[in-house]
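Progress report, Aim 2. The chain analyzed during this reporting quarter is listed below.
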Amino acid sequence: MAAHPIVTGGLCHWFGEGEARKQALFDIDLEIEAGKLTVLVGASGSGKTTLLTLIGCLRRVQTGSVRLLGTELAGAEEGLLIACRRRLGFIFQAHNLHDSLTAMQNVRMGLDVHGRAAAENWQEAARHILTLLGLEDRLEYLPGNLSGGQKQRVAIARALVGNPDIVFADEPTAALDKASAMNAVDLLKRLGAERGTTTLMVTHDSKILDRADRIITMDDGRITGDSG
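Predicted structure tokens for the chain:
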């Protein structure tokens, strides 16, 4: 993997049309190092999630450049964006689990995007990642029988089971108690050290900031602080 799997240059973004058009990001220049846990912090509305979704191929780049794993996203065709997304894992504050599927089956969905070969040994892979997150006794539970924190840990397992190159996480620990939050973040750190997985995380969770390799502060669509 490249030394900097995420590189942005002059990245700007707007929402709305006409007189209602408002700029959300202003000339964001970033290089994110491979295998590290980088955290975006700042007040609500500062542009953190907008930046995360642009880099993660979930929004179209309007102005500027985003190079993700060596691929330029600005002006990229949908097929290329889909191919990029298959190398990514996403964790959101809303767990978005399928109510009719067990924890194991929900995690399997994280492998389905990688094709038939990746899904062949799905049971072993799903059981392993759920066990790492402390859910070995909840493998066959439906979401309706899980607590909010347990559902979020299943969602984290779903994002990680396919061994993505990059994990994008938006408030992933908001529903977790301190011990579960630390366990999840430590797992992301371990994946970075052992597999080179890069994590870009948006959080307001102060208890995990000391685990970050780098903290980037945003305010009104601009980067105002960078520990790296």
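The two ends are 20 Å apart (CA to CA). The chain has seven helices and ten strands. These observations will guide the mutagenesis work planned for the next reporting period.
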